[in-house]
Automatic annotation (TrEMBL):
Gene3D superfamilies: Ureohydrolase domain. PANTHER family: ARGINASE/AGMATINASE (PTHR11358), GUANIDINO ACID HYDROLASE, MITOCHONDRIAL (PTHR11358:SF26). Belongs to the arginase family. Agmatinase subfamily. Keywords: Hydrolase, Metal-binding. This is SPEB protein. One of its GO terms (molecular function) is metal ion binding. It holds the Pfam family Arginase. The gene is Agmat. GO terms for biological process: putrescine biosynthetic process from arginine, via agmatine.
Amino acid sequence: GGDHTITYPILQAVAEKHGPVGLVHVDAHTDTGDRALGEKIYHGTPFRRCVEEGLLDCGRVVQIGIRGSSYDPDPYKYCQDQGFRVVPAEECWRKSLVPLMGEVRQQMGDKPVYISFDIDGIDPAYAPGTGTPEIAGLTPAQALEIIRGCKGLTIVGCDLVEVAPMYDASGNTALLGANLLFEMLCVLPAVKTM
């Protein structure tokens, strides 16, 4: 729960202990804007603030499912200039993400990694309960492939954000969010699963 702003102070604390970390970021948006309504800290800016503070190991940042609307004519430029790997949603359509996650595991190596999962990375057909739904997103099965594909990484923390149950009378978004969090707990280091 919470909006994506919560990831910023969490990563401040994580970096204080581990230094700059890699990031597996699932989202419809890059969340690297500079400001909105005059504010530098809001749910569309956390990863720009993290870059500015040296909290991220930018060569080990991957953003998956990106597709959202933007105020910028080149919405991925900032990310690519920092060395992030941006995987637009259309590169994920109609296929398994297991091969992608093999590449991500190599990119992350054995250094600390944080997982940040915005529920709007999932298509609103499955997760309408969010404040910024964007069509043509990931499926729940692909979300599981991403999270399960992180098993074996040196995960030092994770979050799942932007769930807004009041926008989903069915309760499906909250159910999906809870299951994805459970899956994240299962891939933490030293967790034994059957």
